[in-house]
């Protein structure tokens, strides 16, 4: 009889996959922090916001030609999103396979609640990003839709008569907030003290971080909706 032993590469172990989730999560969070802070420039007026958006496309010049930095960033973000989803899917499948009989009398298990929210939150965020790219990057779904005029695109997007766009953005950003709260809590808990006090601190820090980031994103559509930015 021939016995074959399949050795799993370390990255495909549970610890390896969790490291993939953490590293890709950090890359995505760094992008989100920079993007949120950049969006706040909308309060400095059209000229300044458009100038900033054009500068983003020029980062790396003259060391890198043309819009290379932008495309490198897009490549890194795409790989990070795909790896984050792939690692999450494998980990979720493994944890389900490890518990073939579902809990009959404990429907409100903390872990499964978090896993469900993360899964559906992740799906909403992914659908939002696809819509968002067609809206504000390519301009296909935007009333102005001119990639050289990001300020006008943003103002047209969240005009009061298009309240449903603001509503959709709000739902997606709230989903993003929940997703980030759980992700940040897992990260802070692993890094901090493994005590009830350490856990409470990690929970509070994750909540503050998620609320600050979500609020930073949400002020822009609501400023346009209420006429503060026009
Ligand atoms: C209300 C909140 C937001 C506003 C006003 C906003 C605004 C914008 C604008 C104006 C652009 C186009 C920049 C340009 O091409 O010059 C953009 C691009 C982008 N946004 Fe947002 N954004 C928001 C939230 C988000 C969120 C929550 C995410 C991710 C979950 C996100 C991900 C992206 C990505 C991936 C790009 C494409 C960057 C590229 O061109 O490579 N945005 N956003």
Automatic annotation (TrEMBL):
<keyword id="KW-0472">Membrane</keyword>
<keyword id="KW-0812">Transmembrane</keyword>
<dbReference type="InterPro" id="IPR011138">
    <property type="entry name" value="Cytochrome_b-558"/>
</dbReference>
<feature type="transmembrane region" description="Helical">
    <location>
        <begin position="15"/>
        <end position="37"/>
    </location>
</feature>
<feature type="transmembrane region" description="Helical">
    <location>
        <begin position="163"/>
        <end position="183"/>
    </location>
</feature>
<feature type="transmembrane region" description="Helical">
    <location>
        <begin position="204"/>
        <end position="229"/>
    </location>
</feature>
<protein>
    <submittedName>
        <fullName>Succinate dehydrogenase cytochrome b subunit</fullName>
    </submittedName>
</protein>
<feature type="transmembrane region" description="Helical">
    <location>
        <begin position="113"/>
        <end position="134"/>
    </location>
</feature>
<feature type="transmembrane region" description="Helical">
    <location>
        <begin position="71"/>
        <end position="92"/>
    </location>
</feature>
<keyword id="KW-1133">Transmembrane helix</keyword>
<dbReference type="InterPro" id="IPR034804">
    <property type="entry name" value="SQR/QFR_C/D"/>
</dbReference>
């Amino acid at each position: 009889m021939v016995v074959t032993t399949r050795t799993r590469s370390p990255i495909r172990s549970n610890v390896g996959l969790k490291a993939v989730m953490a590293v890709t999560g950090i890359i995505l969070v760094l992008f989100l922090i920079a993007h949120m802070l950049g969006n706040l420039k909308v309060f400095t007026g059209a000229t300044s916001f458009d100038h900033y958006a054009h500068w983003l496309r020029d980062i790396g010049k003259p060391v890198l030609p043309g819009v290379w930095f932008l495309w490198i960033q897009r490549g890194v973000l795409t790989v990070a999103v795909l790896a984050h989803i792939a690692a999450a899917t494998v980990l979720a499948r493994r944890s389900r396979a490890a518990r073939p009989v579902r809990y009959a009398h404990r429907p409100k298990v903390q872990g499964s609640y978090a896993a469900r929210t993360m899964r559906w939150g992740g799906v909403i965020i992914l659908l939002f990003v696809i819509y968002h790219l067609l809206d504000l990057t390519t301009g296909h779904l935007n009333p102005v839709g001119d990639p050289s005029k990001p300020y006008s695109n943003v103002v047209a997007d969240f005009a009061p008569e298009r309240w449903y766009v603001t509503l959709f953005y709000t739902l997606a950003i709230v989903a993003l907030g929940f997703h980030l709260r759980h992700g940040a809590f897992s990260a802070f808990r692993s890094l901090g003290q493994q005590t009830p006090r350490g856990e409470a601190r990690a929970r509070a820090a994750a909540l503050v971080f998620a609320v600050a980031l979500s609020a930073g994103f949400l002020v822009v559509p609501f400023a346009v909706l209420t006429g503060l930015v026009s």
